[in-house]
Design a protein that fits this description.
about 70 residues, mainly alpha
Amino acid sequence: MKKGTYSKLIVLLIIVLNIIFTAAVLYVFLQTSSEPSALIVAWFAFTTGELSLTALIKKQKIKKGEDKIG
């Protein structure tokens, strides 16, 4: 795997999973007229945390000179 491909793959995966999750929640809401609030909060907290940690790792690598932007 090329350098920097892992973080790009994680970001893309999280975006796709968020779209799928949102569609599934909308479907459930249309069927039951009830939204799973706790699940929504937990999901987006998890994905936000993953993106934040990925960005932090990338920032540290750039700071150390191990990785170039892009």
